Amino acid sequence: MTTAHRGGTYGVPMSGPHRTRRARSTVAAALGGVLVLGIGAGCSLFEQAPPPEDAAKALATGLAKADLSGVTFSGSTKPAAATAFVAKAYKDLGTLRPEVTVTSVKANDAKDAATATLQTRWDVSASPTDWTYSTTVPMRLVDNVWQVAWSPAVVAPQLTADETLAMKRTWPRRADIVDANGAKLMTEREVAVIGIDKSKVSGAAAASSAKQLAGLVGIDPGRYAAKVSAAGSKAFVEAITLRSDDPVLEKQGAAIDAVKGALTVPALKVLGPTRTFAAPILGSVGEATAEQVKDSGGVLQAGDDVGQSGLEYRYDEQLRGTPGLSMRAVKHGADGSVIDQRELFAEVSTEGEPLKVSLDSRAQTAAEAALAKQTARPTALVVVKVSTGEVLAAAVGPGAKGSTLALAGKAAPGSTFKIVSSLALVRKGATAETKLPCTETLTVNGRRFSNYTTYPKDKLGDIPMQTALAYSCNTAFISQHEKVSQDDLTSAAQSLGMGEKLDLPFTGFLGSVPATDDVVEHAASFIGQGKVEASPLTMALVVASVMKGQTVRPSLVAGAPALPAPATPLDPKEAEVLRQEMRAVVDEGSGTVLKPVGVEFAKTGTAEFGTKSPPDTHTWMVAGKGDLAIAAYNEVGDNGVTGSAPFILSFLKAYTPS
């Protein structure tokens, strides 16, 4: 095929007066030959070369999809080989892919060479900052096809043939949860991770070592041995994580080291001051579950530590901050190990924000010590600061097995609810001296109610409401069921901080006094039974409200939005009547046991539950002293004096507000 040349045609004279006709004839003949050849060869002299932009766009699309099959490369590079390199380069990035666009294409004067400039953007995090860079790619027009000059640097700046891309995320140190005085509650503490290293022991020997190690650290030998057997041949299989000062390490350390394949790895883990310290409230931190990773929308990855329960879970995003990251070019050895790496892009992490809570470490420690021996059944003790509503302590005994009983338990409050019933009666015109009929028994719609078996005989008859509360006469309060409606009880409860569903900034339960049309159920509500429920936190707030003379709302998390006031606020004059009654409980009634520790206000309570005959009873004791309102709960006991009051006595002997 004859090729056109700028300024003429190769082999054709271009000047001379006698050659004009001959030249034209020659050109015509030549063109005729070209046309014939063109028809026969299937090409045309006037066929235009494709624009280089198309090849540049194909390259950009291929890089974004890790598929370069639609690109023609110069030299010996095949599209399949280039695609394989890009796939390998992106492999460690998971599903992350770049956005690649063509910003310019500049061709040379001869239109047979061009340079494409590509802009690459990686959306590496939720932040507005992305990893961006430009690359320039030479292209040549060969046989009417634009060929791209291949180089690993087309993928990322200065990338070499033996490098791949990797992104490393680095979380900042998790922020602490601190107490009212700024002391660290949940913070990184030294631990020892103990387990079997299967690269040092295998097969039946590994299973044997696992059982031996399990026996030393106190976990199930069979279950741990099965876990070790199921793990990979080079896996480290954790058995237990112990605090660095755990007695097991001191007692069994040498024996653990002697187990074949056993390994003790020092580490840092977010923990409370002790294993039990406010554990149900503060919560725990651990590796994100598969579900948490999935639900995070790409924020979390396998291996990330996140809050798993309690405040650590609820305020996880605040406490964990945001991770820093770096994109790296990584060089691997023949065995796949990293032998070199360099940073291509970095984004700095953002520190989390500490969470301050109202817990007083001394109060919490004293509360937990008061319950330390209660292993047989669930127990709880809550202490609220009257002036502010701050929760100073919320402890559960060992028998509660780490439950949220203290702040979110649900149980019938028994006769401690008579504080609420008294307020409802005050709102109907009663005073502390108003006489109520205290009889041995009282039947309501066929249901027989009675007082506790040791109720003093000399306190029967028409007695002041103050005496009825002090000695806890059931029939005296139930006798008012026709005068005081269930709505009246509900309203009185809400005025004392009980029974409303509020959006608490922690896991808690403020009690429930449900509506009812059942006469018997309504009568039972007067003595805190029927369907009335409360948590130890609830009853501590009731006492605090009485002491303060206005509704007290709980406060645990600093900076949390204020909770709304009840529809019917507590009147200070109403509260004074209740304080008078609760003083009588301490002076002459069931609360005299608390006099030695300076308690000013109190009320006992028992509530029957279950199907036994006679039924089991929950026991309660609530108390007020100075700026402290306290509620003690025992799931099963004889009465509040013997079943719950000892917890308050122990606490107040150990704790004095600073």
Automatic annotation (TrEMBL):
Gene Ontology terms describing biological process: cell division; cell wall organization; response to antibiotic
Cell compartment(s), UniProt: Membrane
Keywords: Cell cycle, Cell division, Membrane
Primary residence: membrane
Domain NTF2-like N-terminal transpeptidase per the UniProt entry, residue ranges: 82-162
GO cellular component term, pick one: plasma membrane
GO molecular function annotation: penicillin binding; peptidoglycan L,D-transpeptidase activity
Domain Penicillin-binding protein transpeptidase: 380-623
Domain of life of the native organism: Bacteria
Keyword Cell division among record annotations: yes
Region named Disordered: 1-23
Residue ranges of every copy of the Penicillin-binding protein dimerisation domain listed in the record: 172-340
Family according to the record: Belongs to the transpeptidase family.
Name under which the protein is recorded: Cell division protein FtsI/penicillin-binding protein 2
